[in-house]
Amino acid sequence: MESPTNLHAGKVINSRYRLITPLGSGTLAQVYLADDIRVRKQTIVKVFDEPFRSGNDVQDDFQISLQDLARTSHPNLINILDWGSGEISYIVTEFLAGGDLRAMLQQDSSLSVAQITFIMMEILKGTSYLHERGKVHGGLKPENVIFSLNGDLKLSDTGIGSVSAKYFSSELFTEGPYVSPELSQGGLLSPAADVYAIAAIFKELIHTKLPESKNTGEAQEIDSELLEELEAVFASALSAKASERPTASALLKITSEVNIKNAKPALLPVQNSLNLNFLEAFDDKPEAIAVGDKSNFKARLKRATLYLKSHLSRWLWLLVMAILIAGAAFLINSGNADEEIRVQTVPEVAGLQASELIDQFDDYWVLEEALTREDGTRNGEILRTIPTAGMELAEGEILTYFVSLGPELRNIPLGFAGLTIDEAESMLLEARLRLGEISQVPNEKIAIGLVIGPATSSTELPTGSEVDIQISSGPELRTIPNALIGRPYESVETAIVLEGLQAKRTEVFHPTIRPGIVIRLEPTSGSELLRDGVVEIFVSQGPETME
User: Do 467 and 410 form a contact (C-beta atoms < 8 A)?
Assistant: First the structure.
C-alpha cells in the first residue's frame, strides 16, 4: 500500500508544479518539494486531500482567506506564491533550504544566549506584524520556523491554522507543548495563543541547546545574567490565563532591550534541508492534475453573477445577462473551430520600465502587472516575467511581469530610548538600515546626549534607508515669569514652582514696602534656568525698627 506521505509524488498540479518528493505530512495536508516548471524554481507545495472537498462554498471561503494571507508581506514570513482548489486543493510557498528549527534542535551543536535571543526576536517580529494586522498565525512550533542557508528566519504556515479552524474540530490543535491551555479546552484561536507557543519554543531552546553552559557553569557571568532576564521575560507568556500574557509587540520590545547587552551572535548552524538519499523515485510520466476545472469555473461565474445582480437595476441586469449568454454561446461555438496559434518568444525585459513593455506587446499578449519588493532593485523597473525570457508564449496568453516597488521594507527597531548613538546605530545596522541625521530635542526624562527615538512616525522603511534620530538636550529651560515684583510672596512662590523651579525666600527690611510683599528676584524675571533651578525671592519685612 502506498504511503500517505508519498501519495502524490510525481504528479503535476495545474500543469505547473511537479511534486518531486514528500517532506512531511500532518493532519490536514502533505508537504512536497516541487519544481515550478514555468520558472524552473524549487518551491514547497502543501496538498490538502479531503478537507476542502466539502463543496464550493468551503473552497471559495478557503481561497478568499488565502488571498488575504497572500497580501501579508514581511521579511520574517514565508511568501505564499500560489494556490488553487479542485481535484486537489493546494498552496505554493517559497522554498528555504536551511531546514527548520526542529532539525536545529536535534543537532549536537549548542546555541549561545545571543543566538537564541536572535531566533526569538525574529519569530516575534513576524508574529507582531501579523497581530498588528488582525491576523493570528495559529500553528507556531519548531517545524514552522524555517531558515535559509545564510541564516535568515521565516515563519511558515502563516494563518493556515486560523483558516483551517473554521472547518475542523479544535482537537486538531490540542497536541504538543505549544498549544495554549484555552485551545486545549476547545477555545478559539487568538494572538495570546501565538504568544504562548513562542514562549514554549523559547523554553525548549534553552533546555535543549544550552545544556553544558547552564549545568556546568562554563557560561560567562554576563550570559548567565542575560539568560535569567530572558527567562523572566518569557515566563509571563506561559501564563495559563490568556489575559495575563504580554502581547507579541510588548515581548519583542522587552527582548530587544535585553538584546542590547548581548554580544553579536555567531551565524546559526543551519544545514541543507535536502537529503538526497530521501528523494524517492516516481513515474517518469507524471500524472497531470487539472486545477480550476468546470466546477470551479461555475463557482466563480456564480459569484460574479450574484455580485452583478446585487449591484444592477432589474432592466440593466436583464441586459447584462443577455450579453453574457450571447458571449458564452459565441465562445463555445468558436472553441470548436480550428484556428492558427501564433507563438512568440518572451523577450528579456528585466531593467525596463513597464511602459516600454506595454507599448510593444500590449496588443499581442495579455499583460498582468505584479508588484513586489526586492533588495538591490529600483522603483519602477521590471524584474522578471512569467513565463521567463526565452520561453515561447502564444498570442493572447497571459504574460505576468513583476515591477519593483524598490528594496524590501525593514521594521524600524524598538527600544531606542536611553541608548547611546553607537548602540542605536548598531541596532539599525542589524535591521539593515542606516543612521541618518541626529537632532537635539529637549526631554524631561532622558539624560543629555542619549537617544530619545526615531524622528519619524513610520514603522518600516526600505532596506538601506537612513533613519533620523533624536537625542536629548536635557530638560527644556524654564523662564522666570514677569510681573512678580510687588505681589505677595505666596502667589510669587506658586508661579515659580509651577514653572518647574525652586523658590528660596530671603527677608529684608524696606522702609516703604509692607511686610510679605516681593521686592526683587535673583535671577530677574525673563531669565532662563534649568529645571529645578533656584530663584531667590526677596521679601519685605517692612521698615527696620529702632531699639
Answer: no
Which residue type is seen at 454?
P
**E strand or H helix at 69, and its extent?**
helix 56-70
Instruction: Tell me which residue of 76, 64, 7, 8 sits closest to 460, measured CA to CA.
Output: 76
**Contact between residue 210 and residue 111 where contact means Cβ atoms under 8 Å apart:** yes
CB atoms within 10 A of CB 35: 17
Per run of 10 residues, the mean pLDDT along the chain (length 547 residues) is 59 85 76 83 81 58 71 85 79 89 89 93 94 87 90 83 55 68 86 95 91 48 80 93 93 90 84 49 45 47 51 53 61 50 84 87 85 85 87 86 89 90 91 93 90 91 93 91 94 92 94 94 93 93 81
Integer Cα distance of 100 and 234 in angstroms: 22
User: Is the distance from CB of 261 to CB of 222 less than 8 angstroms?
Assistant: yes
Give the pTM: 0.52
Query: What is the CA 392 to chain-centroid distance, rounded?
Result: 38
Question: ∠ CA(200), CA(227), CA(234), 5° rounding?
Answer: 35
**Contact (CB, 8 A) for 345 and 390:** yes
